[in-house]
Amino acid sequence: MSNRFVSIPNVPINSQLSQQITVMIENIKENIELLTGLRDEVDAISKAVTQGQITVNVLGTQNMQQVSAKGNGFTHDGDTVASFDDYVKLITDVQTLANDLNYTRETLNVLIKQIKGN
């Protein structure tokens, strides 16, 4: 992806600007070049990420909206036992939640890679 940033010319040597203004402009130029990636830096730790570089879409609605298992059960020989139907619902609920979490994790990892520039 090409960037839309253009280089900033150096302050002319024979400029009529004071030394303080020249230093300030040179520092601003360096900071902008670091943030835009125009200055060759080995680690590029200061490079900014622009909105156009992020391609991850906003996450949609989570599949898990509410628990379908209700805790239904019965007592057998003094022990409370979950009903088979409720147990199956709980397994489905946990799997749905695990799938939602996995999708969110994958999306987050893509976003992190884009931000880090990997």
Plain-language structure description:
The chain has a two-stranded antiparallel ribbon with strand order 1-2. It is built from 2 helices and 2 strands. The mean pLDDT is 86. It has helices at 19-36, 84-116; strands spanning 73-76, 79-82. The chain is rod-shaped, with a radius of gyration of 28 Å. It starts with 18 loop residues before the first helix and ends with a helix. It is mainly α and 118 residues long. It folds into 2 domains: 1-48, no CATH class; 51-118, no CATH class. A hairpin with a 2-residue loop joins strand 1 (73-76) and strand 2 (79-82).
Strand adjacency order, main sheet: 1-2
Head-to-tail CA distance between termini: 13 Å
Sheet-strand content, in percent, reads 5-15%
- Structural Rg: 28 Å
- Number of distinct beta strands: 2
* Range of helix content: 40-55%
Order of helices and strands: HEEH
Count of domains:
2
Major sheet: size, sense and barrel closure? 2 strands, antiparallel
Assign the structural class, choosing from mainly alpha, mainly beta, alpha/beta, alpha+beta, or little secondary structure: mainly alpha
Q: What is the residue-mean pLDDT, rounded to a whole number?
A: 86
- The outline comes out as rod-shaped
* Uncertain segments: none
Tally of separate helices: 2
